[in-house]
Write a structure and sequence with these properties.
Order of helices and strands: HEHEEHEHEEH
Number of domains: 1
Strand order of the largest sheet: 3-2-1-4-5-6
Distance between the termini: 59 Å
CATH topology: Rossmann fold
Number of helices: 5
Oligomer: single chain
CATH class: Alpha Beta
Structural class: alpha/beta
CATH architecture: 3-Layer(aba) Sandwich
Number of strands: 6
Length: 184
């Protein structure tokens, strides 16, 4: 009963947050973005391994760009130390506010591009994505409320590697109306 009430309150808080979030929307690609943030469900070991490899290759390939990664770890799948900052459902207060050093650091940044992989539609990840002031948000969720500018349909049997590959493919097709001069 209390869990149902809490879920209703969190969904209401999420809807209000998505409505009142003021951010400067701007289309970006991996080439035009100066900073990229990845928010993902890290409850599975395989997902953490894939993200680790992707993050290493991204930083090697795009050494001038900042990469911010935040992992959500379900309380039932707790992990010890990980390569990425992490938060749990304990960091989500009953009224819908996320607290904790990892989430506060993540939300204090304003990335050009936010990638959100949330296959299980977890409320803490949805809340963190809605609270972000990223210029362009890409997610795999199309269940409202969400604040994504672009949704990559990811079948349930596919993993984060599929999501990242499809995102890179679609972003390569976008031609922004303007190109900012990159410092040499």
């Amino acid at each position: 009963m209390l869990d149902q009430l809490r879920t209703i309150l969190l969904r209401r808080s999420l809807r209000k947050l998505a409505e009142r979030t003021q951010r400067r929307r701007c289309p970006h690609t991996f080439d035009s973005a100066r900073s990229v943030a990845l928010l993902f469900d890290a409850s599975e070991e395989e997902t953490r391994k894939i993200v680790t490899l992707w993050a290493e290759s991204f930083t090697e390939r795009e050494h001038r760009k900042r990469l911010h990664v935040l992992a959500f770890v379900d309380d039932t799948h707790t992990v010890g130390q990980s390569r990425f900052p992490q938060f749990t459902s304990r960091d989500l207060r009953w009224h819908g506010r996320l607290v904790g050093p990892a989430i506060e650091r993540f939300l204090s940044e304003t990335p050009d591009l936010l990638l959100c992989f949330n296959p299980r539609q977890l409320l803490p990840i949805q809340w963190a994505a809605a609270a972000s002031n990223a210029a362009m948000k890409i997610g795999n969720s199309n269940e409202p409320p969400h604040d994504f500018d672009f949704v990559v349909e990811t079948p349930p049997d596919k993993d984060i590697q599929f999501f990242l590959r499809e995102t890179a493919h679609y972003l390569s097709k976008i031609v922004p109306a303007y190109h900012e001069q990159q410092p040499a």
